[in-house]
Amino acid sequence: VFIAQSRASGSHRDLEDEELTRIFVMIPKTYTEEDLREKFKMYGDIEYCSIIKNKTTGESKGLGYVRYLKPSQAARAIEECDRSYRAILAEPKNKSSESFEHDYYSNTMRPELRGNTLPFCMQPEFCSFEKAETRIQEPVSKRLSVVSRLPFIQEQLFALFDLVPGLEYCDVQRDPHTNSAVIQYSTAASAIYAKYKLHGFEYPPGNRLTVIFLEDGNDSSE
After folding, report:
1. Which domains does the chain have, with CATH numbers?
2. How far apart are the first and last CA of the chain?
3. 176 preceded by cis ω (within 30°)?
4. In what side-by-side order are the strands of the sheet with 143-148?
5. Which are the contacts of 193, defined by CB distance < 8 A and separation ≥ 6?
6. pLDDT per position as a tens digit, 136-174
7. What is the pLDDT of residues 21-75, one digit of tens each?
8. Helix (H) or strand (E) holding 22
């Protein structure tokens, strides 16, 4: 598996320094930079650690950066660290840190208990979508049908739809004439959000997914 270089990026050395060695993590607010270093030093040589703090109070925001000397070390940290850290590659420094923090919160603040709904109110694009969609009388349910021109790989499709919390099952239909799958969530809210995000999504690139609601036997008015 390789990490692709953006065509807009400069030299490979710049890319390696800026985009592939720095990770962004969610940490307890009690952590010091030394605590952060201690937790992540097992994955490689750390150049520096920093904790994001409130500019007014000086208190930790519960977020931090860890920069490694090699991209492979950063990749290993993301892959092997405890999932509670929600580690991802950090955005380049030239992107607004506040914008990145907001995006990070929106994408990672997921409930841990199965069956809970996504915190949609933290995601402005869903709030506006929800208001607009209330005018469309489309029957909704907790179950979705996914259709593709290319065959599905069960594990990859599951991983894609599991990005939305509440996934109960993913069942690829074994039909020689069509490539389809049935997806079911624990709540209609999760199914609505998954349809909104993944209908028309190119997976793999160049192959657009079609996502529609399937009747699940429940009262859709709820």
Report:
1. 16-89 (3.30.70.330), 143-213 (3.30.70.330)
2. 44
3. no
4. 167-174, 179-185, 143-148, 210-214
5. 118, 120, 126, 164
6. 456 788 999 999 988 888 888 888 999 889 999 898 887
7. 999 999 999 999 999 999 999 999 999 999 999 888 999 999 999 999 998 899 8
8. strand 22-26
Report residue 2: phi and psi, to 5°: -115, 155
Contact 24/62 with Cβ under 8 angstroms? no
Q: 179 phi and psi, to 5 degrees? A: -105, 100
Q: Measure Cα distances from 55 to 58, 60, 70, 174, 182 in Å.
A: 6, 9, 31, 56, 48
pTM of the model: 0.43
Amino acid at 43: Y
Cα 215 to Cα 143, 154, 183, 220: the distances in Å are 7, 22, 12, 9
Inter-residue contact 143 to 191 (CB < 8 Å): yes
Angle between helices 154-161 and 188-198 (to 10 degrees): 110
Q: What are the strands of the beta sheet with 60-68, ordered from one edge?
A: 46-53, 60-68, 22-26, 88-89
Tokens of 53: 């703090």
Tokens 């996504």 map to which residue?
118
